[in-house]
Amino acid sequence: MKVRKEHPQWLETLLSFMTALNNWAAKLAGLLLIGMVLAVTVSVFARLLYTYTGIALSVTWAEEVARYMMVGCVFIGGAVAAYHLRLIGVDIVPAMAPPALARWLRLISQLMTLTLAVLLVWKSTRLLELGLRQSSPALEIPMTSVYALMYAGCILLALNSVVHALREIVAPIIEVEDEPEVQKPPVNLMHRSQEVHS
To answer: What domain range includes position 92?
Structure first.
């Protein structure tokens, strides 16, 4: 017995929109990762240059940029991974459970993730308010711009959790009968042998 799901049209539209949104978020996370690598490379190069030549380069901004880009990459990339169900999790129980029970276990998991995401959104809002009165030490940029990456990632994580929860609630599980295997007639080897010799 095979199992498949049918999605209503509005859910298909929502999934298409969220897929496009997460694709853009994945590109942003990739750019942040590239920027972090470049900033770390500049910092390491400056240290090696000073160690072997004595030439001092002021690149105090590089470590700060790398740190902030890592924060944005983790939160935004983590939200994208949650949408594609790529986060680390123990799924042996849903995999062994019957389809109906597995559906409820996945729903509970998504609701727990949603609860965590909402808590992080609330904490991020407090950080945004605090960042209005703070500036970064080296770049002297408002910390709000840094906390905004965390806020955006948490918002996206919450939206993705809602979408997955809706998919588990709305999409009915339909059982489909397996297609019967077509049995081929047995091959008469003696008959074929006689045809070859004749």
So the answer is: 2-175
